[in-house]
Amino acid sequence: MERVAIVTGGTRGIGAAISVRLKEAGYKVAAVYAGNDERAKAFTDETGIPAYKWDVSDYEACHTGCVKVAEDLGPVGILINNAGITRDATLLKMSREDWQKVIDTNIGSCFNMSKAVFAGMKEAGFGRIVNIGSINGQAGQYGQVNYAAAKSGIHGFTKALAQEGARSGITVNAIAPGYIDTDMVAAVPDAVLEKIIARIPVGRLGKAEEIARGVHFLITDNAGFITGSTLSINGGQHMY
Ligand code: CAA
Fold first, then answer.
1. Helices marked H in 48-172 — which ranges?
2. Which of 23, 93, 110, 196 lies at a 20 to 30 A Cα distance from 64?
3. Are 65 and 117 a contacting pair, CB within 8 Å?
């Protein structure tokens, strides 16, 4: 039976590459997005992957959405918590709203989504959860107390949930991407980005597909003994 995978933030950037990679590998994929209808429609037209619209920071919406995916595609065996946003500013300039929005979207979503599918995974005796963290959650980043806190939280969340799933065939791992060539990174001011690229030993930004390959590996049956770990894919920028 084809396994069903939900990829949050799955119609753009790293998430889109993950959705496509998993579809090509034979999984039934549901790509969740929050706002950009036009991009989501184009993505579905191009790839044939259905897109589902809900806000992953909304607890009830995650529950309802996951029930709908299961009705349409079958029981959810794989969850990729990829959705994330930035609202960069130094602490003194950061609004309370931009703090909360990033926390709710980037780490609150991991709770909301995992909660919606975990019982089903336990019952099935199989599950794969991959949470997309960040180099900036490992190392911190000037102007990102909100994002770094949320992404760092993802790494702790991963290790805790891994322990809860281990006896039930559920693995929970994280990937910590470095700077990847996506819209999110393109929004970093050029002068700042140039300095960041200069600090990447491999000498370039990563590609979304390079993260997608890591995700694919972690969800295979062969990776059943890997749980609670973080795979850093960052061109050597931070060796953690
Ligand atoms: N360390 C120390 N000082 C720094 C610094 C750093 N890394 N970066 C900037 N500064 C200094 C500046 O030199 C400047 O000092 P002076 O006034 O003395 O010249 C001061 O801090 C103010 O800097 P800015 O002019 O940049 O301040 P700003 O308020 O206009 O902008 C900012 C601040 C929005 C955070 C901007 O610096 C920025 O966008 N930085 C990029 C943050 C970043 O890397 N985000 C990653 C997004 S991608 C992502 O997150 C994906 C992922 O997972 C990797």
1. 59-73, 96-103, 109-124, 135-139, 145-165
2. 23
3. no
- pLDDT (tens digit, 9 = 90+) per residue, 181-225? 999 999 999 999 999 999 999 999 999 999 999 999 999 999 999
Is the pTM of the predicted complex or chain greater than 0.85? yes
Alpha helices in the chain (DSSP H): 13-24, 37-47, 59-73, 96-103, 109-124, 135-139, 145-165, 183-186, 190-198, 208-219
Map residue 102 onto helix, strand or coil: helix
For ligand 1, whether the C-beta of 179 sits within 6 Å is yes
Instruction: Report whether residue 29 contacts ligand 1, using a CB cutoff of 6 Å.
Output: no
> What's the 173 CA to ligand 1 centre distance in angstroms?
30
Q: Which two tokens stand for residue 88?
A: 């960069």
* Residues 6+ positions from 225 with CB-CB distance below 8 Å: none
pLDDT at residue 129 tops 90:
yes
94 CA → ligand 1 middle, Å: 13
pLDDT at 240: 74
Question: How, if at all, do strands 127-132 and 76-81 pair?
Answer: parallel
147 is catalytic: yes
Ligand 1 centroid, distance to 145 Cα (angstroms) = 11
Which residue's alpha carbon is at the smallest distance from atom 42 of ligand 1? 143
What CATH code is assigned to 4-232? Answer: 3.40.50.720
